[in-house]
Design goal:
The structure holds two protein chains of two kinds.
Chain A: H1 8-20, H2 30-36, H3 40-55, H4 63-82, H5 87-97, H6 103-118, H7 123-129
Chain B: H1 6-16, E1 20-21, E2 24-28, H2 32-37, H3 41-47, H4 55-74, H5 98-115, E3 119-130, E4 135-146, E5 151-157, H6 171-183, E6 189-195, E7 207-213, E8 216-219, E9 224-226, H7 233-245, H8 255-259, H9 268-282, H10 284-292, H11 296-327, E10 329-331, E11 337-349, H12 352-362, H13 365-368, H14 376-386, H15 401-409, E12 413-424
Parallel strand pairs in B: 2-4, 5-6
Antiparallel strand pairs in B: 1-2, 3-4, 4-5, 6-7, 7-8, 8-9, 10-11, 11-12
Chain lengths: 139, 426
């Protein structure tokens, strides 16, 4: 993935700012917005805004445009999973995306997640690094 | 003493047939209130059999949960559970009351208040976490998370009549909060709410809430509840659950835990409670004492016992009817016989539309509109007023409201055959 992402700390700081500037039923490209969402939670928020636009009839895309949105959403999910900074973040992305993506995309995401998971500290290590000690969470 | 021996739990679980996962008991957030107050209910419910409310009673609640989740997904872009929303197990022709529709409106409006347009929302979310000696699972009705994954809102819809504990003192809410926290450790502030639209405002607030961050918890009125910081809550809850699980044979009856307990039918603590109530109610001395000595404490105990047990007795009466359908007669140890006889059910109006037309024609407008609900009791009351006749009289030749009703709407009334419970020898 040739996609320089901000660090997780920076991405959290910038998510709110990014979201504040995301489109509200105007003519800006939703595809670009999906592509640049700095974190998975920000991506979900934008996705919801898009869905509400569709449900209320404020957005009426052609089939071709809708397909581009779906593709942009999917590919951003893959990028964020491939660059997840913690196992917890990766689990959040995978668990939630399983409910949002089509089967083919889920298999692709699973492959990316397995590869990324191997390179990350375990959830227990991560929690300890954050100063959270939870009895029962083992390596 | 806390039992921290995994082998004990494996043997314990298989002995009593508890829901287990990888050798550890699975505790649901919804049962935390019961288990923490009365740990023995866990094994009683799984070994002695459970008694559930009738299916019909649960239809309205199931419909409200489904309808609000459906609306949040289809109109407000919420993330549905894996595989989509499950249609509840209610008949396809089930028609919810307008009040049920109002409850959904009320709940969804509050959810959207939380979610605004700035958060991602999720409905019917399954949560599960493995602790050292048990699993904690939960099913959250609604949660919203902000764009940087640091603030969480979650709501639990309650459609029941009984007053639910406020969010600030509700173990179920704490259970959800802990599960969310363990799933998303980046959360810095969480808000949990219980939304009970059916609650009458004079009884208590329809919405109660708790907000937790690193400084502790405050409730919906801004009152400080606890200084346990957000990220210490998992360990706090784990400690409480372990304390309860380490007394697995202790049953302790009480107003709070017995209300939702599945094991009440055979619970020894409830039996003792019934025994106590009998003594309190049936001893003449005590009744005299209650009257003469102005004993508020004893009187309050009677009321508590009645409140605690009344719903259980109603359910038991329904249950024994279904048993008597099979065995025809039950005789208690003391020789009291119980059986069913065929009888006529309450009067029902078959065709309310025609009934309304007849009433609208027969009565002046101001009286007719009082009958718009086409409720038999109400209509008889209005007929008595409109025709200035008594509601009921024993004189065969004198007109009363019941006879007038029969003359007007008799052909539209039906009575379904039913069964009445007879208790002989009491």
């Amino acid at each position: 993935m040739n996609n320089p992402l901000p660090t997780i700390a920076n991405s959290r700081q910038s998510s709110q700012a990014f979201y504040a500037n995301s489109p509200v039923y105007d003519k800006r490209s939703w595809r670009d917005v999906f592509k640049t969402a700095p974190s998975f939670s920000a991506l979900l928020v934008v996705r919801r805004r898009l869905l509400v636009g569709l449900a209320t009839g404020k957005l009426r895309p052609e089939a071709k445009t809708a397909r581009k949105w779906i593709d942009a959403f999917e590919s951003r999910v893959m990028e964020l999973a491939a660059n997840a900074q913690t196992a917890g973040e990766l689990c959040f992305i995978v668990n939630t995306s399983r409910r949002l993506l089509l089967d083919d995309a889920i298999s692709q995401l699973n492959k990316i997640a397995v590869a990324r998971f191997a390179a990350l500290p375990s959830p227990a290590q991560q929690l300890r690094a954050n100063g959270i000690a939870i009895q029962g969470v083992t390596d | 003493m806390v039992i921290n021996n995994l082998q004990f739990w494996q043997q314990f679980g298989s002995k009593f047939g508890l829901p287990m996962k990888n050798g550890k008991p699975v505790i649901r957030c919804s049962s935390l209130d019961t288990i923490i107050s009365c740990p023995g209910s866990l094994i009683l419910a799984h070994t002695l059999g459970t008694v559930r409310e009738s299916k019909e009673d649960s239809w309205e609640g199931s419909w409200c949960h489904y309808e609000s989740a459906r609306r949040l997904v289809e109109i407000h872009g919420a993330i549905p559970p894996e595989g989509g929303l499950d249609r509840p197990d209610i008949p396809a022709d089930y028609l919810p009351s307008s009040f049920a529709g109002w409850m959904v409106d009320f709940y969804v409006a509050h959810c959207l208040e939380d979610a605004g347009s700035e958060n991602a929302i999720e409905v019917e979310c399954e949560l599960l976490h493995e602790f050292e000696f048990f699993w904690l699972s939960g099913h959250s009705d609604f949660n919203a998370i902000n764009a940087d994954c640091t603030e969480l809102w979650f709501n639990d819809l309650k459609t029941c009549v009984n007053v639910v504990d406020a969010a600030g003192e509700n173990w179920q809410v704490l259970g959800y909060l802990v599960l969310f926290l363990l799933q998303w450790p980046t959360i810095k502030r969480a808000h949990g709410r219980i939304i009970q639209p059916r609650m009458k405002e004079e009884v208590g607030p329809r919405v109660t809430g708790i907000t937790v961050d690193e400084n502790g918890s405050v409730d919906h009125e801004g009152e400080f509840i606890s200084d346990v910081p957000l990220h210490d809550l998992p360990a706090f809850l784990e400690g409480k659950v372990m304390e309860a699980l380490s007394n697995p044979y202790l049953v302790r009856s009480g107003f709070k835990q017995c209300r939702w307990c599945d094991a009440w039918l055979k619970c020894p603590a409830i039996k003792e409670e019934i025994q106590t109530m009998k003594e309190v109610l049936l001893t003449d001395d005590l009744l005299t004492q209650l009257k003469t000595k102005d004993n508020d404490q004893a009187l309050a105990e009677v009321i508590v016992a009645r409140k605690l047990l009344s719903s259980k007795f109603n359910s038991a009466a329904e249950l024994i009817k279904s048993r008597l359908e099979v065995v025809t007669k039950i005789i208690t140890e003391s020789g009291i016989e119980m059986f069913l006889i065929d009888s006529q059910g309450n009067r029902k109006i078959n065709d309310t539309e025609t009934a309304w037309e007849i009433l609208a024609e027969a009565l002046p407008a101001e009286y007719a509109y009082q009958c718009i609900g086409v409720n038999i009791g109400e209509v008889e009351g209005v007929l008595a007023k409109a025709f200035k006749i008594p509601k009921k009289t024993t004189k065969a030749d004198k007109m009363d409201a019941a006879k007038k009703f029969e003359a007007l709407l008799g052909p539209l009334v039906k009575r379904d055959p039913t069964k009445t419970l007879i208790i002989k020898g009491l």
